[in-house]
Amino acid sequence: MRVFFTESVIERDPEREIQMVATSQSLIFAGAAKPLIDKRPELEGLTLDFRDPYVFRGPDGYWKMLLGSRQGEEGVVLLYQTADLTAASGWEFVDILHREGRFNTQVVECPCLLPLDGPAGDPHTHWVLVCGLMHSHHEETGRKNLTLATVGHFDGKVFTPDFEQELDFVTDNYAFQAFLDHGTPVGIGWLANQADAAPEIDFPTAMTLPRNLVYDAADGTPLTPPIEGVEVLRDQLLDDSALAAGDPVMLEAGQAEIVIELDPHDGPFELDLYHNNIEITIKVDNEGLRLIYMDDTKAPTPDYVAPGANPSHLRVFLDIGSVEVFADNGRWAGTKRIAGFDPVHSLRIREGAVKAAKVWSLAL
Length: 364
Hints:
The protein is an all-beta fold. Helix content is 0%, strand content 53%.
């Protein structure tokens, strides 16, 4: 197995970041790493940012590599390929695959590209390109470090977009990386955000639940539901009636899965998650699906909203330090890191027409 990674040395001249490769024969230990691509392509305005290799088999059978960078005022995704069947050498720059000049994006990070609904070699197969937009800022909502998922077609050299949405409307699913598990796309992200995570604070490097990436042919959108395997985390059923009736449900450990069936035609909905220090609410109103997060800091609170979302199904996972929301099988997903080590101790539906609701404790 070959391991591809970026080596970054701030004072190195002329290249601060280069791509390295190491080979493992045991899948446990790797041999010494060696430079693989030690020079950026000669493109006018390309910055020293040159990182996050994502290697995959293209529709033409060649090994491809994506790298994140910046050119001028735009973040860019660089495409490389090699004819070497072992991917150990011969990497050549092909072209800029994708540009992102919105949201004051400084650099594209952690790009990944994979087929969604068929084999890579089928020209009808839809592909999804996922990009982290470093230091991006959505001015209307105050959200930072967005991640975009773009569905389109890829012929091995050109990616043609058809549909775009944010991977996560709350934005704490960053640096998302995906792979094919026996043909099924699976991805996992960093459960944090550079805007409020730092090594000095508590566990800023948790990971999200693994998610599938699914192409919804009905409306051409990508879905990101949690993988089926997360159901084995269910320990015991805590409630199947009180929450739906508007009564509070206590959580002994703060780790839970909540599944709610809504009537999307019967007005607003609000689920309150009670925490000792932080106000957390999942809400559906006439503007869309929201996660409200209010702590005791003085910093402005972003408006975490999926505009226009009016889901009929909510699935919420709580852990100590995180909340992950999946609406309508991942049509909209929202992930938020919760500061500190205090758990959510109880929950209650304050408003909304609920057809059914269940709460499981999780064995974590």
